[in-house]
Amino acid sequence: MTACGVPMNRMIGSVVALGLLFATAAGARDADSLFLVPEPGYEWSFPRDHTNHGRYALEWWYYTGHLLPDGADAAADSNWAHFQLTFFRNAVPANNAGQLYFAHFTISGPGMEFRFAERIARGTLGEAGARGDMLHTWLDDWRVTRMPDGAQFLEAHDDSVGGLRLLARPTFGPVLNGDNGLSRKGPDESEASYYYSMPRMNVTGWLIPRGDGTAPDERREQTRAPVPVTGSVWMDHEFGNQQLGEGLVGWDWWGLQLPGGGALMLYRIRRADGGAIPQSEGTFISAAGSRARIPWDQFELRVLGTWTSPHTGVEYPHGWVLEAPGFVHPDTGERGLSLTIRPVRDDQELRTESSTRVTYYEGAVTVRRDGFDRRSFGFVELVGYDAEQSPEKTRPLDTPVTDKIIRGDE
Amino acid sequence: MRLLLRIVFRGWSNRPGRTLLALGGIAVGVAVLIAVRLANHSAVEAFARTLEMVSGRADAQIFAAGEGWMDASIYAPLSRMDAIRTAAPVFIVDGREARSERRVRLLGVDLARDATMRPWYRAELGGETDPVALFSHPRGMLVTPALARELGVETGGWFEFRYGGRVDSLKVLGLLEGEDVAKAQTRDVIVMDLPRAWQLTGRPERLHRIDVLFEPGVDRDAAIEALRLWLGDGVRVEPSGWKSEQAQKLLSSFRLNLTALAFVALLVAGFLVFQTVNTTAVERRRNAGVLRSLGGSRRFVRAVFYVEGAVLGVIGSALGIGLGMLLARIATSAVSRTVESVYLLETTDALYVTPEAVATSFLLGVAVSLAAVLPVAWEASTVPPRESISRQVLEQRLRGGRLALIALALAIGGGILTRWPLAAHPVLSGYAAAALFILAGALATPWGLTVLHRAVTRLFGRRLSSSARLALGVLVRSRHRVAPAVAALATAVAMWLSVDMMVRSFRSTVDTWVTNTITADLIVTSGAYFGVGKPELIPGEIFHQLKRAEGIADVDHFRSVRVPVDGLPTVIAMVDMESVRRQDRLSYLDRDRRYDHPADPMINGADAALISEPLAFRTGLEPGDTLRFATPSGPAAVAVSAVYYDYSSDAGMILVDRGWFIDHWRDTRLESIAVYLPDGMSLAEGREHVNAALAGEWDLSVFSNRDLRNAVLRVFDNTFAITYALRAVAIFVSLLAVGGGMAALVVERRRELAILRAVGGSRKQVIGRVLAESGLIGAVGWSLGAVLGILLSVVLTYVVNRYSFGWTLALRLPWGQLALSGVLMIGAALVAGAVPARDAAGQTIAHGVRVDSE
Fold first, then answer.
1. CA distances from B47 to B295, B331, B509 (A)
2. Is the pLDDT higher at A193 or at B804?
3. Residue A391: is its pLDDT beyond 60?
4. Which of A6, B396, B585, B770 could form a disulfide with B837 if both were Cys (CB 3.0 to 4.6 A apart)?
5. Phi and psi at residue B230, in whole multiples of 5°?
6. Chain B neighbours among A 14-73 (CB < 8 Å)?
7. Is residue B118 classed as helix, strand or coil in its secondary structure?
8. Strand (E) positions, B662-733?
9. Whole-angstrom Cα distance, residue A236 to residue A255?
10. In the prediction, which pLDDT does B553 show?
11. Is B351 helix (H, G, I), strand (E, B) or coil?
């Protein structure tokens, strides 16, 4: 059930999702008191914390992964499929009006160009929701469910994108980002979220090739024979009350599985002047699951090129060299980290007009690491490059712009 | 061609008055036809567009069988189906705006899903509006701009919504916008966030409809079939647009009836044209003779008449278009009132003009005009040139014997159609029969005049005064000119009488029915009910409150839904069968003799029902048979316990018991509650008891029996307002015809009248002569019309009505109307004759005598 290109969706999307992604600090939520603000000292408990946190206004479950059809040569990049499946939960910021759920889904490769689908739902009729007693988050027929043995079952299908049914098994426990899972998103203490990652889950399952969208059912069924795949998935789970503080325009995020095992999560939150706020940081996770926080100032980032979207004209950085000379491996004591990151294909831009209405780049990248022959994969997320969507141009949630405004106050 | 037109226009300029009459007749006929067709079209179009707006772009609709509700849990599995692109849930509450009492339908929708389905929401919202507020305000809603305008509410203002015995204030958060809303001209829809609507009404987890949009490439019919299989029996899945089709079906008889009446008006206009052309023809015959002597071909002579007919038709019809547009407005509101009150379909009185309806009415006007000219043209062109110079010849040629034979054949045809209507088109057969009778009447008029003359002469012989004899002679001799006026008059009288008879019988039947059925002393309904359409539902607990109340003898209730039976939406009504038995107010056509009382099996909990006569007629069901239909809980089969008389629904009605209905519909809400007071208690006292029992908890109206009966009859009269109007138009046109005919007759006989003066006749005598003739024409036309009217009544009663509405009415002759029409028609003929008579009497004798040889 896609809901594409429709004004109402766009309008819900524009405000709510901009709220979700760009909500400004001042008065963003008139119902602040209803929702908790992330604070230090949270007591984590799994699997409980995989589930829904309804007392926080915003929450998302982010899955990105890389899949290889059984029997295909892993060395050839073109044999790999990459996907993103994300569920957003957003409490409507007024009068206990319930939730809005969004979901984004992309697949690219092998042999399939990058495509995305998006959905939106209220969840009033059980068509979308997130349970608080177990990890079960769904929107129509897209869902993630945690099995009793700890494996997570991911399922999504869309005619134009294709589909997947995957069982993902963690290789080690959740890794808390930031300070005990409290991840700062701005200069103000309150600008933070709870955030953990499960960067390397092994998956087995099926990739369902996309139908061409016009073929009658019978023919579609034939072309849709599921392809058995194996691979790995990165899960991010984040919840909190708000995202970006004032004067901040967007962020870059990297979730990289590293050659030789281990992974690196890194984000930088950009100011309007292009610089990153000092609270930006990374988390290094070793193959064994040990963790090391790396402050942003320990990284040197060099952009290798740019790519301009033919769809939106937005220019994104495209390829990076990332170096952290002062980095110390938490297990081995080894020093220094040098990575070359390149998108696996140019066009991996999502234009989510029907749900979050944010144009962003969420793409698979190859990761090469000095001292290792084999490349690995990761994902990069680039948000806030569309000048049209900068927070300065986006009206805060409760400020009337015209007299025609529809308002909820009495 | 120019010569033709010049001849035609010369004829007209000689007789401007008569030409105007003919033009007026055609114009009125065409106008009425246009008005009725546009009104018919608009009622259905408004319904369809409202529906289209409300159902949006859906490919299919899922709803509970029998207007019930579905459990909301049906939705989530649907939303996961591959073939479904979007499924938009809809929750419906019918109510009224409390101040204006305007009917308003509240739709609870899921805004996240609805936008794909219904482009109602402001298109350019990005950055302008805070959409979150749409579902953030607990009483917030969106309203159509038209409704906001008419009620004078603005964004941010409040809207009093009355429903289910309650009034709630809703806050106007904004306007619904978009092309569809404007196109639909719907004023009665407000939209609320689904969970908010549930909260407001306290009816969570219910849905009335789910609109479904399939993925592109999905075979719609196959997907609908799959959904039907999958969802089972309590739920219906229909392609979108099915409701319009149902409405068309439901309204088809009503629309056909109106159209047929409009045709009669046009037919009367046809006689008027015939008459005009015929009189000019007589005057022109000499021209025609001259033309032919000079070598003009017969074709040329005929062409003169065709051109005249065509020009009359075109100009008259063109005038008719303008007039028709004006009339259409009035007709549309009358028709939409009927559609709403009788057929319970939501519509608006917006006028939708279809060029096609206008164009065909125009062409029909021209065609009728041409057809009216045909016999004249044929006659004029076949007269040998020499004969045509003399005027008397035609009278001799047209004895009417051959025409009478044709008329007889037509009448027999009409009779056959009446007795054995075509199975596929019974109603159409009825109208065809009516048309044949009317034509036969017209064709038989000359013969009838001859017969009348002979009969009168033979009967009274010498006893007749000379002037009477002369008048009779004139009638017979000029019958070719008199005949159209008489025929027009007769047709109008026939229509008058037959329509009146039908409406009267209908009304008295309804009256009897209402009086017998509504035996309750007081009726309790939702806040504002004027007897139009369905009242808003009230909670079932009120019934129990009243049942327990002191000072009340008995309580019954009514609630109806519609389910398709044999493809037509049929009313199922929930009543209290014990009360039906106690009050014993129904009369039964046929019943299952095994039971003491027809209500017994229902009281004993059997799957049984009472069905009304129209339903029994339509389905052929008899007591003991099994009737099957769908309910929200799956298919049901009930035994027919009896067939009862009922005239409230032409699709028929099924009465079931309260318990049975609630089991199947899971809904206890009611439309009305009937309260019976103990003997001797006054209405005022009863009202006090009712009010005390309700303790001011609800917003309800308490009607007395008489209030309600009057309300029902008022609705009935509204419904037939358009019929009366059509009848008035036909009478008006026929009066034009009488006037025209009289004028023609007098003008033509100026010489004769002049001679009468010359041989010593006084002015008074001349006027007396003319008046006697006029009166005679009126009387003959009226008598013929009365006979024809009775024939038509038979057709209307036994064919049209029976097959249109499914019930028979007692054929009652409207004696009063018969007398009234006689007085009016003869009086009109006298008045119409008086003016030309004065002229004729006043002319100089010498001039008058010269007429024929000038």
1. 61, 16, 29
2. A193
3. no
4. B770
5. -75, -40
6. 14-16, 19
7. coil
8. 672-676, 700-704
9. 9
10. 85
11. coil
Looking at chain A, which residue has its C-alpha nearest residue B194?
Answer: A124
Q: Do the Cβ atoms of A406 and B134 come closer than 8 Å? A: yes
CA distance A91 to chain B (A): 10
Q: Give tens-digit pLDDT for B71-119.
A: 888 898 888 888 888 888 989 888 888 888 777 888 888 877 877 777 6
- Decide: B498 and B789 in contact? Cβ < 8 Å: yes
User: Exposed e or buried b for every residue in B793-818, given b needs 16+ CB within 10 A?
Assistant: bbbbbbbbbbbbbbbebeeeebeebb
Residue whose token pair is 């059930």:
A1
Task: Give how far A351 is from chain B: nearest CA, Å.
Answer: 15
A6/B128 touch (CB, cutoff 8 Å), yes or no: no
Domain end, chosen from B697, B723, B756, is at B697
Query: Nearest Cα to A120, choosing from A194, A222, A9, A263?
Result: A9
User: Residue A109 region, left (φ>0) first, then alpha (ψ -120 to 50), else beta?
Assistant: left
pLDDT at A17: 38
Q: Which residues of A touch B133 (CB under 8 A)?
A: 94, 405-408
**Per-domain boundaries in chain A:** 7-393
**Residues B280 and B389 both lie in one domain:** yes
Residue A148 at interface with chain B, using a CB cutoff of 8 Å: no
Query: Are the C-beta atoms of B604 and B637 separated by less than 8 Å?
Result: no
Pick the CATH number of A7-393 from 3.40.190.10, 3.40.50.800, 2.40.370.10, 1.10.10.10: 2.40.370.10
Range of the domain at B652: 539-697
Residues B125, A6: C-beta atoms closer than 8 Å: no
Contacts A394 to B, Cβ<8 Å: 127
Residue B356, Cα to own-chain centre: how many angstroms?
20
CA distance A103 to chain B (A): 13
Q: Do A95 and B136 touch (CB under 8 A)?
A: yes
Tokens of B456: 């009168």
Among A6, A94, A124, the residue with its CB nearest the CB of B194 is: A124
Which tens digits make up the pLDDT trace of B812-836? Answer: 677 888 888 888 888 888 887 777 6
Length of chain B: 854
Q: How confident is the model at residue B21 (pLDDT cuts 50, 70, 90)?
A: confident
- CA-nearest of B540, B501, B424, B503 to B165 is B540
* B132/chain A closest Cα distance in angstroms: 6
Contacts of B486 (CB under 8 A, 6+ apart): B445, B448, B449, B741, B777, B780, B781, B784
Say if residue B125's pLDDT is above 60. no
Tell whether B224 and B235 lie within a shared domain: yes
Residues B19 and B47 in one domain: yes
DSSP state of A112: -
**CA distance linking residue B639 with residue B572, whole number of Å:** 14
DSSP classification of residue A78: G
**Is the Cβ pair B76, A126 closer than 8 Å?**
yes
Residues B571 and B689 both lie in one domain: yes
Q: A92 and B136 in contact by Cβ < 8 A?
A: yes
The full DSSP string for A17-41 is: IHHHHH--STTS-TTGGGS----TT
The per-residue pLDDT for B843 is 64
Measured between alpha carbons, how far is B608 from B767 in angstroms, rounded to an integer?
74
Chain A, 301 to 340: residues with Cβ < 8 Å from chain B are: none
User: Could you tell me which of B197, B144, B206 has the C-alpha nearest to residue B168?
Assistant: B197
The answer to whether ipTM exceeds 0.90 is no
pTM exceeds 0.80 for this model: no
| Pairwise CB contact (< 8 Å): B219 & A95 | no
What percentage of chain B carries pLDDT values higher than 70? 74
The rounded distance, in Å, linking the Cα atoms of B727 and B499 is 8
